[in-house]
């Protein structure tokens, strides 16, 4: 996908009605998937309005129509819920701007797909956080679950099929070990044995979901801290963004991945494992915030299994990193030799640390439930 020229972007924008004149366009954000631009529009009354233009990465997301239908349906549903409770739908969820011919995305002469969102002003996304910001991000993701608790999740398209099918991920891992294409298995025997020892847990969540013992949810599937906007004035979690991976799943996937990524004391590829553990302070802050907003929509078993959600998402991620290392680093981008192995090791260290703190994790969940 070649970088679009300013002239090409200006031509695209003529297909939208901003109720004013476009006066400035600049690249925006630090996302790695889509190309994002901020559009400044001069309004007739002398004020300005801000918009986001995104080129959707059709290499990653090949069914753009299904992806955009998911986003449009979910955001429209949330907007009604937010308005009904007296909130501000224009700030508390994303708002798509249809093109002048009524389409929620457009395709240009080069075959690229584009969409426009209203820019949410006076709000900030964070790359790292203290326990207060982490707590607010949890409130935002919990609110996301609460708003969509009665949405018919089965009607959404599974944009990335089997994304959190942990048993399928385990089978792929076993296959990579057996094939050992690069002769790396002998050097990571300890990591392989760690995962094999936990094979019986791989279906802990998927089996309950299949049996209907856990509710099928609208899940975000990319619950990183920077996918929440924090209100600049109030400091409260305001809006969940980046809805490309919204699809059916379990709330425990979203909660668990937040803990996996956000409660770790070290970077995901930290070579020094002595620096890696799960912060109980951050675990407690996130659990508190998540249950504060989502708790009333969660049945007892779903709450009880929150520690298992954290463990399974961490185990699955470590397994995926190790599988990629064994297969030659073809899925996750690396910037140095052994980076995927370091990533795998940090995740497995976090799993072991969670296991050592299991009773404390359960106690915290029970306290805030």
From TrEMBL:
Gene3D superfamilies: 3.90.1200.10. Residues 107-270 form the Aminoglycoside phosphotransferase domain. Transmembrane segments: none annotated. InterPro entries: Aminoglycoside_PTrfase (IPR002575), Kinase-like_dom_sf (IPR011009), Pseudomonas-type_ThrB (IPR050249). SUPFAM superfamilies: Protein kinase-like (PK-like). It comes from the Bacteria. This is Mucin desulfatase. It comes from Hydrogeniiclostridium mannosilyticum. The lineage of its organism: Bacteria, Bacillati, Bacillota, Clostridia, Eubacteriales.
């Amino acid at each position: 996908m070649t970088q679009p020229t300013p002239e090409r972007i200006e031509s695209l924008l003529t297909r939208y009605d901003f109720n004013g004149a476009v006066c400035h366009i600049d690249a925006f954000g630090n996302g790695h998937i889509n190309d994002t631009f901020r559009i400044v529009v001069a309004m007739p009354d002398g004020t300005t309005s801000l918009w986001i233009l995104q080129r959707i990465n059709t290499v990653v997301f090949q069914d753009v129509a299904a992806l955009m239908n998911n986003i449009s349906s979910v955001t429209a549903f949330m907007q009604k819920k937010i308005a009904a409770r007296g909130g501000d739908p224009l700030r508390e969820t994303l708002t798509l701007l249809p093109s002048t011919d009524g389409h929620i995305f457009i395709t240009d002469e080069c075959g690229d797909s584009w969409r426009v969102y209203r820019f949410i002003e006076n709000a900030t996304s964070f790359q790292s956080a203290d326990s207060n910001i982490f707590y607010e991000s949890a409130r935002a993701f919990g609110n996301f679950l609460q708003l969509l608790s009665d949405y018919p999740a089965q009607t959404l398209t599974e944009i990335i099929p089997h994304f959190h099918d942990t048993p399928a991920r385990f089978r792929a891992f076993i296959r990579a070990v057996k094939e050992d294409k690069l002769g790396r298995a002998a050097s990571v025997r300890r990591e392989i044995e760690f995962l094999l020892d936990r094979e019986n847990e791989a279906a802990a969540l998927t089996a309950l979901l299949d049996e209907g013992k856990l509710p099928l949810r609208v899940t975000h599937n990319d619950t990183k801290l920077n996918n929440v906007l924090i209100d600049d004035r109030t400091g409260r979690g305001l809006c969940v963004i980046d809805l490309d991976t919204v699809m059916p799943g379990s709330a425990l996937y979203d909660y668990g991945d937040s803990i996996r990524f956000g409660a770790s004391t070290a970077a995901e590829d930290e070579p020094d494992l002595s620096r890696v553990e799960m912060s109980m302070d951050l675990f407690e802050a996130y659990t508190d915030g998540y249950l504060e907003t989502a708790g009333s929509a969660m049945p007892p078993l779903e709450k009880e299994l929150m520690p298992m959600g954290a463990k399974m998402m961490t185990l699955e991620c470590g397994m995926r990193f190790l599988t990629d290392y064994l297969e030659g680093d073809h899925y996750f981008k690396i910037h140095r030799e052994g980076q995927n192995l370091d990533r795998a090791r940090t995740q497995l260290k976090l799993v072991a640390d969670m296991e050592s703190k299991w009773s404390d994790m359960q106690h915290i969940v029970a306290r805030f439930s």
